Amino acid sequence: MPNHPSTTVLAYEKPEQQVDPRRWYALAVILLPILLNSLNTYMIQVALPLIQDSLLASFSDAQLIVTGFSLSLAVALIISGKLGDMFGKKRLLYIGVSGFTLMALLGGLTSNPTLLIVIRIVQGLAAALIQPQVLSLLQVNFLPREKGLVFSIYGAILGFGFAFGLILGGILVNWNPFDLGWRTVFFFNVPFGILVLLCLPILPETRGRGMQSVDWSGIFFLISGLFLLVYPLSEGQKQGWPLWIWGCLILSLLLLLAFISVEIRKQKQGGAPLIDLSIFKQHLFKVGMASVVLIYLSMFSFFFVLTYYLQFGLHYDAQATSLMFLPLGCGFFLTSLMSSRIVQKWGMVVLKIGALATGICCFLFIVLLQVDAVHLLQSPYIVLLLVYGLGLGLVTTPLTRVVLGTVPLKDAGTGSGLFNTFMYLSGALGIALISILFSAVLRQSLASAALSDYVRAFSTSLATCGGLALAAFVFLCFLPESKDQLNERQ
Fold first, then answer.
1. Is the pTM of this model over 0.70?
2. Is the Cβ–Cβ distance between 158 and 38 less than 8 Å?
3. Which of 128, 216, 275, 280 shows the greatest Cβ crowding within 10 Å of its Cβ?
């Protein structure tokens, strides 16, 4: 989803008189990899139930196709920015886009769900090499007075990828060229990725700084701990929650505690920790990050269960599913474009309204299901999803700047990295947890469950999504009301 880069100005940033006069042409190229990743993410979201059905995959396998990508992306984001500093951002972009495109090709060719999960994990690693380099190139190649416009365009591209990706995924699967079915959403990325690679030479060269200290022990503890947390949550319902699942969860907790201990010790010894945890001593940052986690848990969970209710409960095809997401995507895209100006004028109340609207919409959705749980392509549902999308754009798009505004400028780099990592982790955990709830309330397999079972499971999941959004609203109430108040607190 839309997020904004760190406000940190890098040491090698060009002076105003040395900016590249072709930088506006380069901007289109810089943003192409972001559009590639965004379209891919949401096209697969729509096609996921069809992928599960075609590959005879389990519900937990389908979760891992999504959560594996999000988890590897979240963890690798922490180090990929430093790798760009070490080896050059343009070089990392080449590697990231090449890897992403190759995995898209392999994903379209595979017929094994386990192999597809592995491919998606590697694709997440490749995607993580892309995003920090793009944000840094935007930061160093434009004048300070131009950056507001540049990052607004960046946010709009992400919003467009979200809105159009959901629609395009349904169109491609329904079009079914060469009888490829869901594989089309993977193969679509191959020519797009090649186009991006052909355009990358237009970008200015960036020289790396050479080898730097990397906190490999921190990386090990963090990756191991998060994997042993997310994987058992996705696999537990399939395996019947055996003892080894609970053992993995306990071990993940111990590894994450070890990670915190290692990072604190390195910080005290004057080393270079993977994450500077001292940033969490700032109360407002903790409150802001809590709101980030809650709103993204709600959002990713809502997308996941809505897709499954439509395609398994109501037997919608991918194109009909994409049409259901159309008003949501349009509303999100519209407020994403305007949110910066609206927040500048009205302050934090805009984000609160957005979180409140998304939460209320989830509960109103439950009410509508009691009236008519079948005909969702009608005006009440369309209006409701439009309002949900409008609210989602108001709260998520400006949230990064608001959260980073609670920390001093010297901590903005750490804050931005943590924001992106927590956002993608929320996606992985949200899907894993809402799937457990959905399956538990469904009480049947996806194939044998009746419509009434799906309505019950979907309604319970919606109530959870709404509760998370309202909890995010509560946390947002503790953040500064306006930019002036925020500056006074720093």
1. yes
2. yes
3. 128
